[in-house]
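User: Sequence in, structure out. Go.
Assistant: Echoing your sequence, followed by the structure tokens.
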Amino acid sequence: MKKIQNIVNYSGIGPILYVRNRRARNLTIRINQKGEVRVTVPGMVSWRRAEAFLLSRQSWVQKKLDQMNSQSCIDALPSEGESIRIRGREFPIRLQKGDADSEDAIWRILLEEALDYLPGRVAELSEIHGYHISGLKIRKMKTRWGSCTARKSINLNSWLMMVPEPLCDYVILHELAHTRFPNHGSRFWKELDRTTGGQSAMYRKELRKHRIMCFAAKKEDQ
């Protein structure tokens, strides 16, 4: 029997795969080695109840995802004197006043570049697709790419400067869509498909491959 699946994207934890399994007795949450979250839903349990179950365990899910990010990325964090590549340019890591370590320096560099780029890009995409926002904040966020408030103010992670431009645009459009549809219902996804040319699912999948505060593993010297 073919299993019924449903993917819902939540701010803070990303896409969640709900899979209905009529043989299952209990609601369960599993996180695989790739950081993909799956909720198994028994046959007689409603999607709404399954979502409530997931949201009641959201802090646990986020903790597990954060642990996976930290364990796999901490050894690859560039040190002072090394550099990071942002949009094709190399930026040397030099500690300045207020920086406790290279991680602080990296976030400072990213924020400077994000403040220079993101406001203009948000304005461009808003004009193209007919959105109006009440405000924009760009800051360091370790667990989410962006968010949208009830007052239609958008928050964006400065780490977006580390992902390809199409994915950066996708996150911006995701938050802009929330100014019209606050939840992740069907109308929200239709809106996001409209602004991404029907490619929202593909972008969502690609974004999942990128982790905040994670660099490619350093290559061993030959």
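User: And one key feature?
Assistant: Residues 102-129 form the longest helix (28 residues).
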